[in-house]
Design brief:
The complex is a heterodimer. Chain A is an alpha/beta fold. Chain A has helices at about 35-45, 60-75, 95-100, 115, 120-140, 165-180, 195-200, 205-225, 240, 250-255, 290-295, 325-330, 340-345, 350-365, 370-375, and strands spanning about 5-10, 20, 25-30, 45-50, 80-85, 105-110, 145, 150-155, 185, 265-270, 280, 300-305, 320-325, 340. Chain A has two domains: about 25-140, Succinyl-CoA synthetase domains (Rossmann fold, 3-Layer(aba) Sandwich), CATH 3.40.50; about 145-375. In chain A, helix 6 (about 165-180) links the parallel strand 8 (about 150-155) and strand 9 (about 185). Chain B has a four-stranded antiparallel sheet, with no helix packed on it. In chain B, strands 6-7-9 form a three-stranded antiparallel sheet, with no helix packed on it. In chain B, a hairpin with a 7-residue loop joins strand 1 (about 5) and strand 2. The chains are: A alpha/beta, B mainly beta. Chain B: Keywords: Lyase.
């Protein structure tokens, strides 16, 4: 199918946002409910869930960040409706999460394992409610939507020395195009911008945003300094180093290419929804899954993910388009990879040509084409915890 | 001709775009200028080599920006990686608060 540039077929939601998928999410607010949630997805077609280890004995900003992540997952427009599944006695109460999501006009149900009298009845009740939501969801038709309604998350994982030369500049080209078309592009992984922060701060919209850039970088760098370790013991990773990256700064300068050349309009907290369009920086760690989860909870409907070493990364609710930095990994891991950016290294294609291929793929995927990570049901989820468990 | 890339004229390292054996007359391109260097070690695809001598403690520049510091004298044509380059950021082992 041919798409008019900057258009796709999406699902319009009650709050006006547009989804590219139509999932029913079984959302466990506590680790104790993740098994039952997974079992519901095995019983009911069209449902997705995720496994995690959080939701209890958390306090303060750490409680809030986890809470915001759960709510953001439910609010993501790729989700038609949600069954929030709790145990009953956890700090992250299912009914509180459900209330926040329902305020958007989305269909939400709540099930508590303790209230239902145990796991089996909770699964049965959750499955019954989910089945109803799935049938309702199936009646929603896709309609023509505009790229200005997209929030695209950008990410690099399993980077190598080609990342900064091929796939990241191509994603940077795409990011600039999305911004030109009135959409939103999220740059994240604060750790992997250490050493490149001045380049972003120099194109911040105003002094406040520039100041925030240095604040989040400083906070991230201090975490490693306070631990008394060289950050290179964990980032760049052994695979990055094998791929030719010698320091975090080198990795960062390559990673920053994903942000193209646009003005940096806003700097938001983890899992927060952008209030501005254009290029937005979300403060996340470099950890692939924690970053991915933050951006999806922040409302990203699609994620562009560049990789040199090859990673299977996917989200339960947002398609992740995998773009390789070199041809070798595209061929070796073809079952995981969507687009080859290695042609840039070989001189067969330009950054702009690969960028146009990615833009066209966004139209297709936004309209229903499945990515490799979706086909393999790679439902990754991980929250950036910022406090101890008590 | 073996392929490598030098990203800006400020850079003092090049990145190999294919596996390059140690050759005495490796052609490199810096901006509009062609130069020949003696590549002292084989360099793997994606890895770096010095295109000028770098003093111990000197900055290593790629993308026109600092990517680290030389932990020892690096001769033009030598392999540059974690054995002779250290990061300058996130160094809790050196700058504990």
């Amino acid at each position: 199918m041919q798409f008019e540039k900057g258009k796709f077929l999406g699902y319009r939601r009650a709050d006006g946002r547009v989804g590219v998928r139509n999932h029913v999410l079984i959302l466990p607010t506590i680790t104790c409910a993740t098994k039952a949630a997974r079992q519901i997805t095995e019983l009911v077609h069209g449902t997705v869930s995720f496994v995690h280890q959080h939701g209890c004995a958390q306090v303060g900003v750490d409680y809030e960040q986890t809470f915001r992540t759960y709510v953001g997952m439910g609010l993501n427009p790729n989700v038609y409706g949600v069954v929030v599944l709790g145990l009953g006695c956890e700090t992250h109460q299912a009914r509180n999460v459900a209330k926040e999501i329902a305020a958007s006009g989305k269909r939400v149900e709540v099930v508590s394992i303790q209230d239902e009298g145990g796991t089996l009845d909770a699964i049965a009740q959750g499955a019954k409610l989910a089945a109803r939501l799935v049938q309702e969801a199936s009646e929603v038709q896709r309609e023509w939507c505009d790229f200005s309604e997209l929030i695209i998350g950008t990410e690099c994982g399993g980077s190598d020395a080609c990342s900064g030369l091929s796939a990241n500049p191509a994603v940077g080209y795409v990011s600039d195009k999305i911004v030109e078309l009135g959409g939103t592009s999220i740059l994240a992984e604060t750790t992997e911008l250490i050493g490149a922060e001045h380049l972003l701060a120099n194109r911040a919209k105003n002094e406040h945003v520039a100041k925030r850039v240095y604040e989040v970088i400083d906070a991230m760098e201090k975490r490693s300094i306070n631990m008394g370790v060289d950050i290179r013991t964990g980032n760049p990773s052994p695979g990055n180093i094998k791929g030719g990256l010698s320091s975090l700064e080198e990795k960062s300068l390559g990673a920053a290419n994903k942000a193209g050349k646009s003005t940096l309009n806003e700097l938001i907290d983890y899992a927060e929804r952008p209030t501005e369009k254009g290029l937005v920086w979300m403060d996340t760690p470099g950890h692939d899954i924690e970053q991915l989860t933050g951006m999806v909870a922040g409302g990203a409907q699609i994620v562009l993910f560049t990789t040199g070493r090859g990673t299977p990364t996917g989200s339960p609710i947002a398609p992740v388009i995998k773009i390789t930095t070199n041809t070798g990994v595209f061929e070796r891991m073809s079952e995981n990879m969507d687009i080859n950016g290695g042609t840039i290294i070989e001189g067969k294609e330009t950054v702009e040509q690969v960028g146009e291929t990615i833009l066209n793929e966004i139209s297709k995927v936004a309209s229903g084409k499945l990515t490799k990570a979706e086909i393999l049901m790679q439902h990754d989820f991980g929250i950036w915890r910022i406090g101890p468990t008590f | 001709m073996y392929k490598s890339i030098i990203l800006t004229e400020k850079d003092n390292v090049a990145t190999a775009l294919e596996n390059i054996p140690s050759v005495e007359d490796l052609k490199i391109t810096i901006g509009d200028e062609q130069r020949v260097i003696n590549l002292l070690e084989p360099i793997q695809f994606g890895h770096k080599f010095a295109i000028q001598d770098i003093a111990e403690g000197g900055y290593i520049i790629k993308y026109g920006e600092v990517i680290g510091r030389a932990t020892k004298f690096i001769k033009c044509g030598e392999y540059v990686h974690v054995h002779n380059l250290e990061g300058t950021r996130g160094r809790g082992d050196k700058d504990a608060v």
